[in-house]
């Protein structure tokens, strides 16, 4: 089976631009519905791909990606939109991307506003994310017809041996960003699914109380709000947020 590799997208439609950062086991595809919606409503939308992502080898994420690289890519993406002479730049992130969207609001003055969906900020443990990544890796390997069961098991053992160190790196960055939440003075959108199994939904209200400029939106949904059944409501709420900020 040939697996179509996801690609970054840039929908250029208007002087205001929204940067969309994807999740740990995700790709820019998770942001495509929201990106197209924003494009239809006269916003430019840019979703880059984090290092290690979008390949048919899950180990690439653990071996090629790092919080330092992903932060550099976030900064480069914002610079790209500046070079496109966008008059306003907003940054939103899903899960892993939420960490860097928030860091951008803490550290980059010309980001107008932004927010997070299914954010790990304030969550104590990453067990759900670990489990989800292993499930994702097994699924990716299973649809590669040239791999035997023994080869899949061998690859899964390597993934399992390497993921904890990567999650420790991500958690450290998440804690550092969480500790700086009070620095955010610009409008901050928080979208959280109440039945999220990957991050603790109870962390979102705590983050909202730490960021005085925040707007908390709760959805009766799971983790990936940009593509699950809550996505229409999320899109409407994000557009309303953008129009008012």
Automatic annotation (TrEMBL):
User: Domain Serine aminopeptidase S33 spans what residues?
Assistant: 16-221
The molecular function terms in GO held by this entry are:
carboxylic ester hydrolase activity
GO cellular component assignments:
membrane
Site feature Important for substrate specificity, where: 143
The record's section on Pfam families has: Hydrolase_4
**Annotated InterPro entries:** AB_hydrolase_fold, AB_hydrolase_sf, Esterase_lipase, Hydrolase_4
Which Gene3D superfamilies would you find in this protein's record?
alpha/beta hydrolase
Query: Where is the catalytic site?
Result: 95 (nucleophile), 196 (charge relay system), 223 (charge relay system)
Q: Report what the protein is called.
A: Carboxylesterase
